């Protein structure tokens, strides 16, 4: 029991420090985060206190309001922190791969299944919606990458629906912060066993990440494909 208590005590400062760092990062991109959280907390508590006085149970409703106010603040903070993080990642090569890597269960992602020397890149995600190719880079250049990847996959998964998404802020593109929501809205047409079978067949194609010593997440700006690297299909 003593060891468990010590472990819990050691973990709590780490969690608090992480929350503090997240708050500082969010405040740099969202200067009103403190005011928003305060308004949400006070507003929620105030509503429950008012209801408590009206029905004659201010203490009970006050305690419930305090707990719900804390929960509401946590939810709002999480969403605004996520939005701030996406804002900082926007435009960085490999940012979409970081978002895909944090997708909920049910999706299998493979980063950088296609790439060129200009850092235009295509990532692949497989789920019950089928295959989703997520491209980031120059809209004109990624079209050829998407076409080549679709042609490559068609040899073994021609019976699976394929969706393509171009991440960006231009017309016909999906903003990074809306990428996960857009994918979750896609209609589910495959069963669990079909998703597994599709992943098994796609593994035979491989991906360039298995042959290149590249870091996970957003890639450093100025990074170029090595001249001696594998050729893109």
Automatic annotation (TrEMBL):
Spans through the membrane: 33-53, 59-78
UniProt-annotated stretches for the region Disordered: 208-233
Superkingdom: Bacteria
Keywords attached to this entry: Membrane, Transmembrane, Transmembrane helix
Coiled-coil segments: none
Biased composition regions of type Low complexity, renumbered to the chain: 219-233
A Pfam family reported for this protein in Swiss-Prot or TrEMBL: DUF4191
Protein name in the entry: Membrane protein
Provenance organism: Streptomyces flaveus
């Amino acid at each position: 029991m003593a060891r468990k208590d010590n472990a819990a005590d050691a973990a709590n400062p780490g969690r608090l420090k992480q929350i503090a760092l997240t708050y500082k990062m969010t405040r740099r991109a969202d200067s009103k985060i403190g005011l928003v959280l305060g308004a949400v907390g006070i507003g929620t508590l105030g509503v429950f206190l008012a209801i408590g006085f009206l029905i004659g149970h201010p203490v009970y409703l006050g305690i419930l309001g305090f707990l719900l106010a804390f929960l509401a603040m946590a939810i709002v903070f999480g969403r605004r922190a996520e939005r701030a993080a996406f804002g900082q990642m926007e435009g960085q090569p490999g940012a979409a791969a970081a978002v895909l890597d944090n997708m909920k269960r049910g999706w299998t992602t493979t980063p950088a299944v296609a790439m060129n020397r200009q850092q235009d890149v295509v990532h692949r995600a497989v789920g019950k919606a089928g295959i989703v190719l997520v491209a980031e880079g120059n809209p004109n250049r990624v079209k050829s990458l998407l076409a080549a990847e679709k042609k490559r996959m068609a040899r073994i998964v021609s019976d699976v629906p394929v969706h393509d998404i171009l991440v960006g802020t231009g017309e016909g593109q999906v903003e990074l912060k809306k990428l996960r929501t857009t994918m979750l809205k896609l209609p589910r047409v495959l069963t669990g066993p079909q998703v597994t079978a599709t992943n098994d067949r796609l593994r035979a194609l491989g991906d360039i990440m298995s042959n290149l010593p590249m870091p996970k997440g957003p890639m450093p700006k100025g990074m170029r494909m090595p001249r001696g690297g594998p050729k893109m299909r």
